[in-house]
Amino acid sequence: MSTPDLAAMTRDLAAMVRIPSVNPYDAAPGPGRREAEIAAWLLTAMADIGLETGREEVAPGRPNVWGRLRGAGGGPTLMLAGHTDTVGVENCDDAPFEARVEDGRLHGRGAVDMKGPLAAMLETARLAKGEALAGDLLLMFVVDEEHLMTGSLFAGGRRSAAPKADSCVVCEPTRLAAAPAHKGQSAFPITIEGVGAHSSRPELGENALVSAATLIRAIADYDAALLARPPHPLLGHGRATPVLMTGGESHSAVPAQAVLTVDRRTLPAEDAATLRAEIEAVIAGAGVKARVGAPAPEVAGLDTPEEAAILRAALAAAARVGAPAAPVAFPGGTDAPNFGCPAVICGPGDLAQAHAADEYIELAQLSAAARLYLEIARIMLKGR
Ligand SMILES: [Zn+2]
Questions:
Q1: Which residue range or ranges hold the Peptidase M20 dimerisation domain (predicted)?
Q2: How far is the CA of 145 from the centre of ligand 1 (A)?
Q3: 114 CB contacts (<8 Å, ≥6 apart)?
Q4: CA 44/CA 120 separation, integer angstroms
Q5: Is the alpha carbon torsion for 368, 373, 376, 381 positive or negative?
Q6: CA neighbours within 13 Å on the CB side: how many for 99?
């Protein structure tokens, strides 16, 4: 019994798309923004499969849920992980929660990012029940990936009662290529200090916006210097990009302060202290009076080594089922670094359709994903 049931996955995916679970961002969860509703649906689905389930709240109304398929014993635990939240629907064409199927695609918010992958995870557990596996297969569903990643940070942290795994596949869409690496992100707010004065007498002040212009030039030079460093084999270079600026008080005042945010995309080897020191050196070099605030967001990078068992298993499984053979970089940040075990990102569908006005997933990708995940489970969970 190892043929994925596409009709069952399509039904599961449609049911999940019809449960709006838009990330509440900084507001409280409410109608249409309830990860709790899809979490409840997942608990029922996992109980129906026969998994041992668990639930824990990361914040009020925002639960992570999981299900465990026990192996015979003597093997490691493999986690398949995904997030239950989606981005908003402000840009959607129409009917983002209808789950319309047309030409082999299912359309709707969350279809590819990532309720389609969640359906493939459930199907993998159904298939794995018929296998003689030594280790445990764990399905983990977390909240809040689209905002602050509090779900995976909580699940991987010490306060969580969630089961821990020895390795992990984060099932975000990669068209089934194995992605062992992505950049991190640290967005630094920089407060530039000037001296306020009436702008009829600017010589009495020190214009924070003019200093900001000097600093922006220096950040551009810093970015060029980053591009001259040796590249990471998959990720290329770290980058520094000015992304936001506020400043000034009125049309008749020399600005006393400006705040510039620099988005620093980081390579996994760059640590927080070094990043801050580099930004401070750029400020000092520009001769600007400024202080660097705490980065927000601050997202870790991922760099799973070539010899990691989960990466080798993902590539071996890909060869067996005809999935892409070469590892790739994942373009954005994910939950993967937060679970505290070696991880690869690998899942059905194309990230190009994520967050899009017309989000969809090719249903054929779901069957291929379930086959691929089952092969990974066979390799990883066969006993030590
Ligand atoms: Zn996602």
A1: 181-286
A2: 7
A3: 82, 83, 171, 172, 173, 347, 349, 354
A4: 16
A5: negative
A6: 16
Residue 267: predicted pLDDT: 96
Residue 176 is given by DSSP the state: T
Long-range contacts of 89-97 (CB under 8 A, 24+ apart): 89/20, 89/22, 91/356, 91/357, 92/357, 92/358, 92/359, 93/357, 93/358, 96/359, 97/17, 97/18, 97/19, 97/20
pLDDT of residue 384: 58
Distance (angstroms) between ligand 1 centre and the Cα of 113 equals 4
Residue 330 CA, ligand 1 centroid: distance in Å: 11
Please give the distance, rounded to the nearest whole angstrom, from the Cα atom of residue 17 to the centre of ligand 1: 14
Cα of 182 vs centre of ligand 1, distance in Å, is 14
Quote the ligand 1 centre to 143 CA distance (angstroms). Answer: 11
C-alpha 164 – ligand 1 centre gap (Å):
21
Over residues 124-142, mean pLDDT: 96
pLDDT attached to residue 27:
86
Give the model confidence (pLDDT) of 260-298 as tens digits: 999 999 999 999 999 999 999 999 999 999 999 999 988
Separation of CA 192 and ligand 1 centre (Å): 35
Centre of ligand 1 to C-alpha 172, Å, is 6
Q: pLDDT (tens digit, 9 = 90+) per residue, 74-92? A: 899 999 999 999 999 988 8
What is the C-alpha to C-alpha distance for residues 188 and 169, in angstroms, rounded to an integer?
30
Tens of pLDDT, residue by residue over 177-204, are: 999 999 999 999 999 999 999 999 999 9
What is the 114 CA–ligand 1 centroid distance (Å)? 5
Domains and CATH numbers, the chain: 6-182+301-380 (3.40.630.10), 184-299 (3.30.70.360)
